[in-house]
Write a structure and sequence with these properties.
Layout lengths: L1 H21 L5 E9 L11 E11 L5 H5 L12 E5 L21 E6 L8 H4 L8 H4 L2 E8 L6 E8 L7 E8 L3 E4 L5 E3 L2 E4 L11 E8 L2 E9 L4 E2 L7 E2 L2 H7 L4 E3 L8 E9 L2 E11 L4 E5 L11 E9 L7 E8 L4 E5 L3 E5 H4 L4 E10 L2 E10 L8 H36 L4 H24 L1
Parallel strand pairs: 1-4, 2-3, 8-17
Antiparallel strand pairs: 1-2, 4-5, 5-6, 6-7, 7-10, 9-15, 11-12, 11-16, 12-13, 14-15, 16-17, 18-19, 19-22, 20-21, 20-23, 23-24
The structure holds 2-acetamido-2-deoxy-beta-D-glucopyranose (2 copies).
GO biological process, one term: positive regulation of T cell proliferation
Subcellular location: Cell membrane
Membrane topology: Single-pass type I membrane protein
Length: 451
């Protein structure tokens, strides 16, 4: 029955596709194939060509069936489609295999690679004994890939029997920490691991490891281990180490810095040498330390209205060297507002409306976090007595004065009416009232002169 055999074939293909490609978590990787344009000699600015390329990746070798099940896209030249065997699954990380249709894609570049004997002192011994030249006669490639979200950086050396388009990973160097951020004074681990295909003739002939530091065009050797002679190269660097047990047992070439310092910020390149081969990855180390702040002068002198006081905010001990400084003022009621954005601030109580004073705060925004320093500011001549207090005193005086005036008026008016009606009969009665009225007039005069 032909239908059944078709269904069988389809399911075999589906099975192969599922387990051959996606099931193992190995990606189909889009890469740029970059090489020197043919026909140009050496020189400094060799023109490069860049072509779209695609790598199908499996952990097992391809069979006829698995190859025929793959359908490369038509927009990529068949000569730039590679069927890669990666026994250790170094490419098969989630960081290189984003979900279908995701906007962010891993970065990948593939270049032709020329095996060569290394010239560096700690790796030259690797090629002392004669290597199988037949093995080196093949197509060699290097692939550099960067995973999503700074999770992985990888550099693989691959060998394909001449013109086969089926390369196999021979050496893989990778880091799970392409970007490391550390506080000052803490120990730092820069991850670097390598894997060598055990079936390759270059396996077991020794390896060397090198860590170089690079910052703004300057470089230095941090550490170099000559595995052939089991020797560290002499370097001026102190406090940097690798774990030799881990290096041999697990291919763990991670660099350990005992205590991070500002001068450690930069790029670290981990290189692994095999006879005639090398691969390297870069790890960026950022030392991030928020600043310590102080306000000068300290303590702040008393501010006299009409005078200006220059205060300075000093930030120290921070890295990296970018910082945003600003000032805040919080008055006696706790209301906060901004006073500007520089390390120097001119405090003028009139212009800035500082009232009786309050708290002046310097705010530093930094990659390592926000830091604050505060100082108390007192403005003199305003606080005792305050305008409100003076107003209240005037009001009380006015009320008192009004009350007394009213009293004296009531008393004197009753006097006059009585004088009118009773004439001199009540003279005896009038006298003390008149005296009292005089006392009131004295109080009146005192108040008038004061208010
Ligand atoms: C060195 O590596 C070995 C093997 O990975 C591990 O057991 C050991 O604890 C490591 N030593 C240090 C000092 O980290
Ligand atoms: C590599 O070695 C370092 C230092 O011994 C250790 O801290 C780290 O966990 C090791 N990494 C792996 C993947 O074993």
């Amino acid at each position: 029955m032909p239908e059944i055999s078709t269904i069988y074939k389809i399911s075999v293909i589906a099975f192969t596709l599922f387990f051959g490609a996606s099931g193992s978590g190995c990606p189909v990787l889009e890469c740029w194939f970059v090489q020197e344009k043919p026909g140009h000699g050496g020189g400094f600015s060799v023109p490069m060509s860049q072509e779209k390329s695609l790598m199908f990746i499996r952990t097992e070798a391809y069979s006829e069936e698995s190859l025929s099940a793959l359908h490369p896209p038509a927009d990529i030249s068949p000569s730039r489609i590679y069927y890669m065997t990666d026994p250790a699954g170094t490419f098969c990380s989630a960081a290189l295999n984003p979900p279908k249709g995701s906007v962010n894609k891993p970065k990948c570049e593939i270049n032709p690679f020329m095996p060569h004997a290394s010239m560096v002192r700690w790796a030259s011994a690797l090629t002392d004994s004669a290597q199988s030249p037949v093995y080196l006669q093949a197509d060699w490639f290097s692939v550099a890939a960067q995973g999503l979200d700074e999770q992985l950086t990888l550099s693989n050396i691959m060998r394909a029997p001449s013109a086969s388009k089926e390369p196999q990973v021979i050496l893989s160097v990778s880091s799970k920490t392409p970007v490391v951020r550390s506080r000052l004074g803490e120990p730092v681990l820069l991850d670097c691991g390598f894997w060598v295909d055990a079936s390759s003739p270059v396996h077991g002939s020794g390896f060397s490891v090198e860590w170089r530091y690079q910052f703004r065009g300057e470089g230095r050797l941090v550490l170099a281990y000559d595995g052939k002679n089991d020797r560290f190269a002499e370097t001026s660097e102190t406090g940097a180490d690798i774990n030799i047990t881990g290096l041999y047992e697990k291919g763990n070439a991670s660099l350990i810095l005992e205590e991070s310092q500002v001068r450690h910020s930069g790029t670290y390149i981990c290189t692994v040498y095999l006879p005639h081969l090398l691969a390297q990855v870069a790890v960026d180390l950022e030392i991030v330390e928020p600043p310590s702040l102080s306000i000068y002068p300290s303590p702040l002198p008393l501010l006299v209205p009409g005078q200006a006081l220059v205060v300075q905010c000093e930030a120290s001990g921070f890295a990296p060297h970018t910082l945003d400084l600003s000032w805040e003022f919080s008055d006696a009621d706790g209301t906060s507002r901004s006073l500007g954005q520089s390390s120097r601030l001119e405090l003028d109580s009139g212009k800035l409306g500082l009232g009786r004073g309050g708290e002046v705060t310097c705010v530093a925004k930094h990659d390592g976090g926000t830091r604050r320093a505060a100082a108390t500011l007192s403005v003199i001549g305003v606080s005792a007595p305050s305008i409100e207090d003076s107003m209240a005193m005037v009001a009380v005086a006015l009320v008192l004065y009004g009350l007394i005036k009213f009293l004296s008026w009531t008393l004197s008016s009753s006097d006059s009416s009585e004088t009118e009606s009773k004439d001199k009969v009540n003279n005896v009665y009038f006298c003390p009232t008149s005296k009292f009225s005089k006392v009131l007039n004295v109080i009146h005069a005192v108040f008038s002169s004061h208010v």
